[in-house]
Amino acid sequence: MENLHQQTTRSDHWAPYYDVDTRNSDPTAAASALSDLAGDGAALELGIGTGRVAFPLAEWGTPVFGLDASQEMISRLEEHQEQTAEGRSPVQARIGDMARFELGTHYPLVYVIASALFLLTKQEDQVSCFRSAAKHLTPRGRFVVEAAVPHASGMASERQQMIVRELSEEHLKWSAFVHDPVHQVVRAQDVLVGPDGCHLLPNVMRYAYPAEMDLMAQLAGLRLERRTADWEGSPFTATSTHHVSVYRHQSADNEISPPSGASA
């Protein structure tokens, strides 16, 4: 059985390598889109990590508060912080379980990106994340989820697979995956071999399809407002490998038309 301690331990292993591993992922489009959704308010990021998106979002003028289960990730985030004239960074973070949290604050934007929702390895924890997010939204606030589409992205395409990701005369990185389709769980191990030795970076993800997330949202009192294939707003289709889904309270307005981009 998975528990928060195990998830935290895996994230701690990843913390020293996360910035390098995501160096080719440009956060500009995500930060721009999230800033538009936050308006003049602040944002709450679930699974904030080292602040890859939070800091660019803050540069757009949106203060960001984040939760992460890993103190190692937050320590890396704090190394990136730049204090304002008032002595406070526009990005703040603390240890927390993104499945179940109570902050006593409401935000116009709560978001979880890069398939971080899947790091919650039980369906009930993912449902609880939607419910916790909904409790922290202002009446017209939005909850944004960015995630891979499992089969289309290759996440759940095979029972077992091994991929060589980087290869040089002094460095080797490969990934091994074992897929449990009954429980929608993928267990992975990244292996780094180089002059400083061999490092194992484990991961476990419980994937969910967009339709399942829409049901989770409904259970939390949210409805799908729109779904796109990326942060630039490309249409979501049957061949899309990722999605950006925007949810809001069912009682936020009286619209009865179906949400845009809800079907492929």
Structural class: alpha/beta
Helix tally equals 7
Number of strands: 11
Mean pLDDT: 90
Q: How does the overall form come out from the CA principal axes?
A: globular
Would you give the CATH topology of the largest domain? Answer: Rossmann fold
Let me know the CATH homologous superfamily of the largest domain. Vaccinia Virus protein VP39
Order of helices and strands: HHEHEHEEHEHEEEEHEE
Helix content: 25-40%
Q: Can you identify the CATH class of the largest domain? A: Alpha Beta
How is the topology of this model organized?
Elements: H1 4-21, H2 28-38, E1 43-46, H3 54-59, E2 64-68, H4 71-80, E3 91-95, E4 107-112, H5 123-135, E5 137-148, H6 150-153, E6 160-167, E7 172-180, E8 185-194, E9 197-206, H7 210-219, E10 222-228, E11 242-249
Would you give an account of this structure?
This protein has 264 residues and is an alpha/beta fold. The protein folds into two domains: 190 residues, Rossmann fold (3-Layer(aba) Sandwich), CATH 3.40.50; 46 residues, N-terminal domain of TfIIb. It contains seven helices and eleven strands. A seven-stranded mixed beta sheet has the order 3-2-1-4-5-11-10, with helices on both faces. The protein has a four-stranded antiparallel beta sheet with strand order 6-7-8-9. Strand 7 and strand 8 form a beta hairpin. The radius of gyration is 18 Å and the shape is globular. It starts with a helix and ends in a 15-residue tail after the last strand.
